[in-house]
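Worked example

This section walks through a single chain of length 350. The input is the sequence exactly as stored; nothing has been trimmed or padded.
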Amino acid sequence: MEKQLIYKKYKKLIQNIHVMKDTLDYLFAGNTLTKEEACSVFTRMGKGEFSESEMAALLTVFRMRSIKGEELAGFRQALLNLCVPVDLSEYNTIDVVGTGGDGKNTFNISTLSCFVLAGAGYKVAKHGNYGLSSVSGASNMFEYFGYNFSNDTGKLKKEIEETGICFMHAPLFHPAMKYVGPVRKALKVRTIFNMMGPLINPSFPKNQLLGVSDLEIMDLYNQVYAESGQKYIIVHSLDGYDEISLTGDTRYVSNKTEDNLTPADFGFPVANPEELSGGKSVEDAAEIFRNVLEGKSTPTQQNVVIANAAMGIRCISPEKSLADCIAEAGESLKSGKALGVLKKLMSLNK
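Given that input, the structure is written out below as tokens.
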């Protein structure tokens, strides 16, 4: 019996080696994967069936050439299949998130927009992590203000029902990432996993506002979301920001249309890039975060948050005019409703 177990284990190991070797040979020859093939490879990677050197080789392929839409969709499907799911399907939820990678170190615009949306009466299922390309990510902010990370559905539902928002700290919902983490750390360069975070919200929100750092990623995300059945809007500020920065024109694409928007379209003046800085520490970022909600920030900081929240409202309710969405978002922020959401959420976490 013991010999049979050893043989089965050895046979599986040999099969896995052959699978990855064949896949790498195929990719090194300039070929691409179908969605199904990409899903299969990433599923096995997420189950720890490949060595770190094999995973590093695979990630290097997509560092040396652009990933294709079908491949990204397959990788996304694999990670969603392997995640710890959260059933929030009874709510018409939205997530607002940026891909990062723009090198701009902006303050937490997306996270603030989520509180504005919740203050306006919408349900927000925020998914995020610690900052990678900026000083402070969503997890840094939630943690700083006293939020207790959890993957307990009951806790998350209670929060979304009583405050309009809940937060999912990515590492608690994606155990598959533990196998890839050491490889990413060792490589010390951006990999396709930097693109995956915004795509793998474990609650499968019905609406998604995504910010991307370049037009190539915008096209890839559009290919993936066009087949998802979700309402979505993908935005990119043409001067390089992965959100609506108001420092120049914004390109957007949705499952209904695509176009450019100017700061004037939002009713705001052109923003000074220096006012979008997130500071040099989590404490700096938290001070800006609090000031925006308390009405103590600069007009530019408030305007940028309102613009992004307004686009989130437009995603949920595309029949509404941009002007009406701006008015809703502005009222939520300036009336103190968004601040009230933060206070109530943190009181539930004491």
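What to look for: The chain has 14 helices and seven strands.
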